[in-house]
């Protein structure tokens, strides 16, 4: 393979989002007729890399060459023109249009200036057949299809564009085993037809079966490139982690757990996203939720908070079964639950409203007498919270949108602490905030737990789970795959169980970082 | 599933609107003192097509997940213009018609440019432009008046072969010349795609901006065709504020009745036409029942509420409550 000239090459590519470095001088070389796997943890820069390749974001610096000549892509359409087609993790299908409409969307066949529906139908049927999904009717609306079928449509859509480089970003994450097998057949055939394929997946077994070549990304850089099969799973995991621990976590107490759990779930099931989940959280305990992104962790938190309908199984508070019908019910009365949402901008804050108003929203019923807000009580409580969380703001009456990300997140947390919740659900609360604020949040979390709160904490950052949690439940495909306790919470164990490969395979080498 | 079932699912909104219209019209003509005669149909058609044109215009914008609150005012402005220009010899009349339609196009283009390139919200942008259009209409016709080429007017509001209302034929022609090509063009599909999921459309390399712009421009054109027909029916131009606003609001009602989703990406102008015709018939029902006309707004409102509620049943099936707010 060394004899062939590279089809596509990226050199010195960097990209920052605000102050956060997503890619730093990354390199990548893609050869025709091969499948190239890209590995890395959440946030290692893989998504940014392929977004740059696909013309969705522009790099801050660096150059890309296709067939030896330099290229830049102003838009996804431009990248498509050049023959680079990406199947994104977040689906790019248009829900109200039919399968056939979607497949030809970027370049529909035309006759007399109008879309030729017969030709469109033919192209769609061909593409679906090539993707091994002839069971999907071209006229069905995308929104009516289940997730696994939509993903097959995505693949068909990509094939219909006759790509030279096909990028698959977690394209198999929602597929059934039978579909995965079909897709693999297709990918291998495409390879033999001379396409270059970039394959991003967390599933080690898939990479072992498919890839010719692997590149590992870590902290925005490509740290290793090697022919597939030349490294063991364990070595690959080592490459993926390989970073320093930062000692920013408060010490964990050695505590004797209380008898009855404050929050308990028994056999929770919801749609096809939650699969028979049982767990318990005691007062004073921080329980982590781990696993790859999108394995049902968010849904689990939403289920507890009364957002999901048609939930099966039992939720118990203080050992008594309850049915929680809405966030209002979850936060009121003896349940006393709070959910710190993942997206503070849409689910946590009213950005144009003031810091004061935002802080009071969740506790208005406690702050008012006969429907009128008691301003003195409000002020007192707000002062407490601003002090407790050290929220840095130029005043309580400025829009909360003017605060920094870290301080916005503090406002979201403070708003719920105003109710003095007994159960706190945290959905990836440190995403996109600076290290200093993170450290404060870790300490706060431990303080709240010490004061008797039961905390359920989902994070995509393994360091946080290790540093903060007394126990971690690792979810995979909507089910709890493994429970890690105390010293058993290690990066090795977390990553191995998140990838759903056997823990034993990677246990070697664990002592190194103890 | 068979192909025809998919077709049925696609056309459900349109068919529902068609059904409502047929039911309403059957009740109407059944109770009309004159019965189901060419005359009754012609009068109903002439009243109905005006709203149908404006509703078609509204549909195009609503499909892109926008809303056009200036359609009624474009309709009024072009009515005033036509009362000056669509007159005289055949050639002069033809020039007048072109000028009126061109004005509609320009109004639509202004709306589109402001919304798409100026990135203003459609609702605010079109309230403002609507006020401007009405202002221009007032300058053209401070008091009602003017006239129109009556030969052309009578031809287009009369009957073909003594039975077929000419206005309905005109509506059909407009559907065939404007709506069908648009809905089957790449831009039409881009308009749907942008309304359904703008990010997905962008990621797929769809010409979103051009699609949306096209939708606004054609909306202006359709509203001006409505204005032209209003002139043919009334022989005059009038800058009537209340009537312009009523047409705007009724067009939104007609669009919803016609199965077009206000969230964008779904529905067809054909549905909106039946929605408009049904809406007009509901309004006229009370006359044939000899009720006090004072009851009309209330009655119309209740029927409308029932009709639009039919579309809301899907909310009962939502399983993640956060989806209510999407």
Question: What report would you give on this structure?
Answer:
The complex is a heterodimer of chains A (514) and B (326). Helix content of chain A is 32%, strand content 25%. By secondary structure, chain A is α/β, with parallel strands linked by helices. Chain A folds into 4 domains: 1-83 and 163-242, Rossmann fold (3-Layer(aba) Sandwich); 91-162, no CATH class; 260-336 and 421-514, 3-Layer(aba) Sandwich (Rossmann fold); 344-420, no CATH class. Chain A has a 6-stranded mixed β-sheet with strand order 6-9-10-3-11-12, with helices on both faces. In chain A, α4 packs across α5 (147-160). Chain A is globular and about 70 Å long. Mean pLDDT of chain A is 84; it is low at 503-514. Helix content of chain B is 73%, strand content 1%. In chain B, strands 1-2 form a two-stranded antiparallel sheet. Chain B has 326 residues and is mainly α. The model of chain B has no long low-confidence stretch (mean pLDDT 89). The radius of gyration of chain B is 20 Å and the shape is globular. At the A-B interface, α2 and β8 of A face α1, α9 and α10 of B.
Can you tag this structure with a few keywords?
heterodimer, A: 514 residues, alpha/beta, Rossmann fold, six-stranded mixed sheet, 18 helices, 24 strands, 25% strand, globular, B: 326 residues, mainly alpha, 73% helix
